[in-house]
Amino acid sequence: MATSVACKILYNLLLPLSLLAACIFRYNFFSFLYFTCFLVLPLLPSPSKESMKGHTGRFLKTILIISSIIVGIQLVFQIVLLALQPYGHWLEFCSTTEKVLRQIGLQRLDIPAVDAVRAVAPDCLMFVVSIIVYVVCYKLTKNDNSRDATNTVVQRRTKQKSLVVDLLWSFSSCFLTALAGIILPSVTSSVYFVTFLVVVTWWCFYKNWGRKLVYVRIVMLTYCGAHLVALYLYQFQFFQSTLHPKSLYARLFGLTAIVIYDCDTPYQLQLDTELDWPVYVNPVVLLIYYWYLALLTCQWIQNPLLVDESRRGKTTSYQSLDPVAGSRPDSPLEEPTTRSTSLLPSGSETASPGTPGSEHPIEEDLNRPRVRKAWMSVLFFIMKQSYTVSLIVMMAWSITYHSWLTFVLLLWACFIWMIPNSRAACLYSSPFLVFYAECLLIIGYVYGLNLTDDELPTEGSTNYRDIGLVKHQFPCVHLAVKILYTSVFWLTLRQYSRERLLKKRQMSETIGLQPFGLIFQTENVPAAPDLEAPGDFHDGEDSDKMKKFGKTIQDFLSKYWIVLCGAMFLIVSLQEDVVLYRIIYMALFLFYMIILVISYKVWRLIMLPYWWIVVFYSMCILVIIYTYQFENFPQYWQNGTGLSESTLSDIGLQQYGTSGLLVGLLTPTVFVIIIVVQLHYYHTSFLAISAIGDTMFYRKARGREEKEDVTEEDRGIPEGGVDEPDKASQDTLAHKTPKEYFIAFCKAVKYWYRQVTLILWRLLEIHMIKIIFFSITAVCITEVSALNFIYIFFMFFAIPIPWLQGAFCICAMCWTSLIILAKMSFQLTLVNATAFDVDCDSAGIGHIPIALENGTFNLAEWVGFEKTDRIAKYTLGYIAICLVIIIQAIVNLHQKQYRWENNIETPKRGILFNEITRENADEGLLEMTKFLINYFFYKFGLEVCYAMTVITICVRLDVYGVIYATWLGILMLLLRRITYLVWPVYMCFLSILFPILYLVCLGLPEGLCIAYPWSSYFNPNLIRWLYLPDYINQPQSSKLMADFFQLLFVCLQWQVFRVESKIQEQYGGGDNDMIDKEGPIEDNPVPNFVFNKTYLDLLKNAFFNYTLWVVLAMVFLAGTSLVSIFCLGYLGLCFFFMWFGQDYLLKPRQTLLKAWNVLMMYNVAVIFIKACLQVVACVYIQSFYKKFCWLIQLLSLVCLQGDMYETGANDSDCQAPVDQAGMSWDGVLFVFLLVQKRIFTCHYFQYIVEEVKEENTLAARGATIINEQLASDVRDRKDREEETLHKIRKKIEKVKARQDKLRGKDKCEPRDHWEAVRGGDRYLWQDESSDEESEDTRSEEEEPRTPRKAGPMQLAYTAITEGTKETIKKDRAIKRSMSQSDPVEKGRRQTIATLPSEGQVFVGEYTHDSSSAPVSPSSPTSPKSLPTPPMSPTIDDKDTVDGATASKPKTETDIDAVCPEEGQEEEEGTRPEEPEKKKEDTLWDKFCNTITVGWLIYLRFVDAVIEWLFTISANYRHVANQLKRYRAEMRQKKDNQQDQDDQSGVIQLSVEDETAARQPSTSDKDDAASAELTIVPLKSEDDEERKPEDDSKSRSQEGTGDIVPKKEQKLRIIPPVHPPHSSEEFEYVGDDITDDMTGDKSERRKMSRPVRLLFALLYVLISQSQLVCYFLMILSQIVEASLLSLPYPISVFLWAMLTVPRPTKRYWICAISYTEIVVLVKFFFQFGFWPWATLDTDIEQLEDPFWWPRVIGIDRRDNYAVYDLAILLALFFHRSVLKSHGLWKDGSREDESEKTKPGADVDTGSASGEIEDTSRDAAASIGESEGKDLAITETDGQGLSIQKGEYDTVAQREEDAVTMTDEEVDEVIQQSWLGALFKPFKEFYYQMTDTHIQCCY
């Protein structure tokens, strides 16, 4: 094999390249010999053992001999030249001897080195190459013992070449033959061209060449070789001098001199650069063509019989319907081969094989038709539809080459298009068409010859160019284009010949297929053996996929081809030059669209005659324009019609230039083709598709077909007609092939495409009328004219009245059509635009306005007409209006048809999802989203109208803005039921005002020369503010867009009011009643969302809980964004509401709404005042600069639309304030206030109030739990320290024992330090580590090891070291083991199995017998020595995407999505793995494994981050979890005590309930145990062991306050509280007590990783809220670095962080108060009247960091209070956290003050008692852990007294902290200046304070 390859490379690559190089770089007799060898080379076989003995060997020897002789001659010649000195003196340049010798190949070498090398190097190269090739081939083939050539050829018999290869070879033959003929037209090249035409024409007539085509190929090979030899010889100087290149014969026969000679430098190789590129390409093409023919001939010469037999096998495999003319050859030897006859496409080259051996396979194949491949189906379709392409090509040829000869083709095509059966007509005329086209090719070829004008004239008495006799610079290009056109005619003729022959054979089959009809669906008729045409692809049938693909294209084009027709109407009509025939096109289009809008049935009825009229008109226009381009035709038209040239130009008859001729004819031609295709091929199918109700039988049949298709393709389609993607397949996509991925992707795309399209169609149906109104308004505002006022006038009726909107659309369509036609007609030259000009000076009017003097005005412009050169842009807006109206009609028809086909009822008006109502809104996030899409405006339309009114005020800022602000203030004061009565008046006011405002913008026409009365009396700025018409400064029409939206929303809201009053219950959106009174929570119609069972509940909880703080932050930003007196009110109100925080929500709803209405009305008042002050800021600001500068600064008087007003320059020293935000902050704040008000008045708000009440009720228990945590942490730390010391002591004892043992009796104590240091040795410690390891190993073996999943770094390390596949296997093995032993289920089973029996007490998660001896601190069963309770599994133990545990692998979509076989492995469980054969992974498998491992690493990394974040917030989550459990317990008690709920409304935890909770019975203990510690006991282990009488005795002693002696006092030990350090211990779960008792955590486990990560971040933020406050305080000082911000870090480092365990309430109150004071101070110093706040301040001072205002912090800058806002929010947020945990009021002094308050609840004292008890327990626990005897007693309720101990207890530290009660806070506020500032709100403040306790408890 290697030998054969080496020989072929040398012989077929190296040798030809060397010969070619020797030929083209030198032209002489020696090179001609090499060129001859180059031509002979492809005719010989490749070197082999046999061929080297034959012609190939002799050929190589010949080359070697020739090159040797030439080298010898060159050597001898140079020796002679050197011998006859001087060198070459007898051989002068250009002498006769020198010419002869140089053309032989001998020349002097005393020339430039490059030329010398070029003269000698080819001979040396060929000598070396010939030796190498011959020697290597001879040696390699001599020892080659492989099979001979015969065996090699026999082996080739089994190789079946594909049909594609045959087609490529055939196409190459045709292409090269034609290319060789047309590349350089000449007499010699015409042989190729004529041969090409004859062969292809013969093929088109379905004739067979047989063996004659082989002889033709041999003749062409010989001729081409002779042609190449002639061209090569003509490059010699001798032949060029004999026959000059410019002579007639040289040009006629194509002899071109590429190489030229100069006698001064004859040794140089000079190329003629003046020649065109085809001259250089011609030899290359001939060489390629020659080699191609030579290779085919060589193959046929070697063994023609073999190739014929190979061809026979191929024809057996591919049966055909094509017959062959002529008889079958007698012997196989007479049959040509596939490539031996491949001058044509396959199928016409040879007859079918007739050997007996091939008959049986043929008969067998007749009964089973073959399925075509995709490309075969495409080719077959092209053959079938070639007549359509032929007609298009005829028209294209006629416009590409404009002449009378091609005009025949245009008429021919138009005539055939007009015939109903155009296919038959085209096929019947195809022979004449081919003949005519070939005549045009021959004419073009003749005129492509290199002849002069005298030899071949192009001008004479007749214009030859008009006839089509034109010479081109590069005729080969034009001939190639014409041949490409003619190839379509050849295909059509071949199709006609085939069908004609089939008809003669009387084969009954349906041949005709309408173009683009049933694409690729063809007949399936078995072919007879005598009708075979090898190489044709028309046999068999198309595959199912191709049929489906063809049907899809058919349906798509049938549906949307008419859209292309409409687009072509617009393209033809809206070209730059407006002419009459284009106006008619536009009129036809608009008429058709108007009919569509008015009546769909009439539109369908006139469709067919309409298309025929358009086709006939278009063809007439095309013919007229085409003929008008000929010479003298303009004069004919002018003389015949009597019309001038300009009139003819307006009609559209104008001559185009050479460059514009193609473009001018292309547009109408393409339009005709598109319309004809619609008429012939898509009209019928479009009528069938677009039928609605009138062709029921056809539509039902079509519907059944579609349903069958859907049933076959999309299994498992849900009800509703839309198939959903298979979820199971989506979950098991991993390790599938890319094809399966693609199929799944296509299914998903198909499903979502259907879903999205259904939604979009319905959205368009609902909102299309609004889009129409918006489009019309935008066009009218963009171009203010009298024509557009008609739109505004009719919209006055249409927008408020819905049933008039349909008529309005029809009227708007008709009016728009008239405007478009009128505007287009106005562009004609026949219309004189100057006729409408009016000059007021010459009009004879007495009093002329100043604005109208010395000017000419056109009345047509006021009406709406003007001349333009860009008609498309000029009419774009009106075209858009027509399109949106048409789209509305199409959308309505589509929806009507869709509902009719699917038997769907018409949905409610304006509803997108008909199945969603108010009852479904709270089911989930998707349902809530759908409900909001359906009923958003129904629920919140009134608020949208208010917000739009504010936007309109901010946009206008004129007198109408003040009017709107007045309306807004009135409407805000009314209740909803009163607003319903006032709304029609408001709507009528806006409806009347909108046309009036448009008339104001339009004004009077200037041509009337009438002056406005206010022009002389009013200031121009006042005229602008009053929005009055003016000639010079016209009112800004863009403001009307805001008025339009305001009117639109108001009209829509009026419809909402009507729905509420009539069909509210049937509408489905629920009621819109505003809740202003509290009712029983049991009567609340909406579900309670505080349980957080779904994502919707989470969003509701976040939205309703924290929107208040967002709104207050917006109030703060509105107060600090601008410096004015109005902003001070914002800040005061913001601080007022912030001080109350969540307690504000506990007020009665009426009180709450009143306070909030005060804030809203203040906001509306600010908007109204600012709108009124614009007249001062924009009109009279100059007078205020001089007298009232302070008022400008105080009110921030800035003209917000300064570009519209001429305010003039500020000459005074008064600094004008800068307002970039304007009224935008007020508008945004108004929207937020509206949102918060809707929250206050909704049913959901009641649950927020109840939740706040429960948090306040249980706040004291939060402090108790936190104190327990502190005591537990201290005790655990001491335990660890003692354990460490114990180990050290034990180790030291062992070392001592070992040392004593080694030293024996000689032991002695070290006397000094040096001796002690050097006295030890390594042997003393060598056995300790092993002992400890053995002990640790035994302890680890005793404890069960829970399998844990690998972390991200471990996974990455395993993947790098062991591979991705092994990593996945190990991970799955761990998951299987984890699924077999789920820790949660296992722990639950263990808990149930170890429930305490009678006589046992449940402590923590362990039990012990109460009858046993008391447990001592050092006993193994004491709380110290109890083993740590098993922690819940961490996140690493559950690797899921949606939070599902490993015991439920079906929910692990993250792994299953990339590892589908994981589920199978988990199902196998412990099934023994069978040995599988190792299969090498493919590249795709490796890629999938890599992606899988990468995804796993990413998931584990996210899990690790979540785990770390949860660890940080573990204590907080533990407290929150306990409080949620208590809240759930309260709800359960509330359900059991309805009588108490009716009286008090809140569950109260009495002292008796608390005592009962501390002493549960045995059954209660069992219930608590079975509930997995749902209620965590707040008592110690000793309390469980004490008897009831002991407990009562101790309580009586505590109540009396006596000091118990040390020996008799009973120490109370709190069991260790282990906070959860895993994310599974506490998730964001519901508060339902039943879920917690049953231990059902499936809901929380379903949370996905992003949600868990979000919760982890939130928990960290909440748990470390005080650190956030510290950080913001320090950051504020870092950024601002001022004296005002300096107290922040000082207070943090010197007060907050030094307070243990946490800062007191006083610190946080001081921080909040100081921050508010700082904000107010900064605000007051932002005014511009301060000396340092002026703009004249030196820039150096502004940039100086030590500038004294900047050092203090009172410098003027933007965003001066951003950090203060962040600090305030953080402080108030931290205050809410402290309040929710009872840490805001947790001192004994507060407790006493709370007890003395009138109306304080009993539970308050109980809560404070719990704090004290917990503090005592914590102190006792700490004392015990210290190993000291502590006696804890009560001292008159003042706290705890510790007799012994070095450490203060947690309770004592809490007691020492000085806190402030509500009365003290009130007193401080009254005495401060802040109290004076808030004096107007004093009564309201006390009212809220007095009712605080009743609302909370």
The backbone outline, from C-alpha atoms, is extended
- Classification by helices and strands: mainly alpha
Helix content: 55-70%
Point out poorly predicted stretches.
147-161, 306-367, 507-538, 695-733, 1387-1476, 1543-1644, 1786-1862, 1868-1881, 1883-1897
Number of strand segments: 8
What is the helix tally?
80
| Strand portion | under 5%
How large, in whole angstroms, is the Cα Rg? 50 Å
Distance between the termini: 99 Å
Give average pLDDT, whole number: 74
What is the subunit organization of this protein?
single chain
Major β-sheet profile = 2 strands, antiparallel
Major sheet: arrangement of strands: 1-2
Secondary structure topology:
Elements: H1 2-24, H2 29-40, H3 55-83, H4 96-104, H5 113-142, H6 149-156, H7 163-182, H8 190-204, H9 212-233, H10 237-242, H11 248-252, E1 259-260, E2 270-271, H12 277-302, H13 304-317, H14 359-366, H15 374-384, H16 386-400, H17 404-418, H18 422-428, H19 430-446, H20 464-467, H21 475-504, H22 544-573, H23 580-598, H24 600-605, H25 607-628, H26 633-641, H27 645-651, H28 658-689, H29 696-713, H30 727-731, H31 738-782, H32 786-798, H33 805-826, E3 837-839, E4 856-858, H34 859-863, H35 871-874, H36 876-902, H37 925-956, H38 959-972, H39 976-1002, H40 1020-1025, H41 1040-1062, H42 1064-1067, H43 1095-1120, H44 1125-1140, H45 1149-1178, H46 1181-1187, H47 1189-1195, H48 1224-1240, H49 1244-1257, H50 1259-1303, H51 1313-1318, H52 1328-1342, H53 1352-1362, H54 1364-1380, H55 1383-1393, E5 1400-1403, E6 1406-1409, H56 1453-1456, H57 1462-1468, H58 1483-1512, H59 1514-1536, H60 1538-1544, H61 1551-1558, H62 1562-1570, H63 1581-1585, H64 1588-1600, H65 1633-1638, H66 1642-1645, H67 1649-1663, H68 1665-1680, H69 1687-1696, H70 1705-1724, H71 1739-1743, H72 1748-1752, H73 1762-1780, H74 1788-1796, ...
Antiparallel strand pairs: 1-2, 3-4, 5-6, 7-8
Helix pairs in contact: 1-2, 1-5, 2-3, 2-9, 3-5, 7-8, 7-12, 8-21, 9-12, 16-17, 16-21, 16-28, 17-25, 19-21, 22-23, 22-28, 23-33, 23-36, 25-28, 31-32, 31-36, 31-41, 32-33, 32-39, 33-36, 37-38, 37-41, 37-48, 38-45, 39-41, 43-44, 43-48, 44-45, 45-48, 46-47, 50-59, 50-75, 53-54, 53-58, 54-58, ...
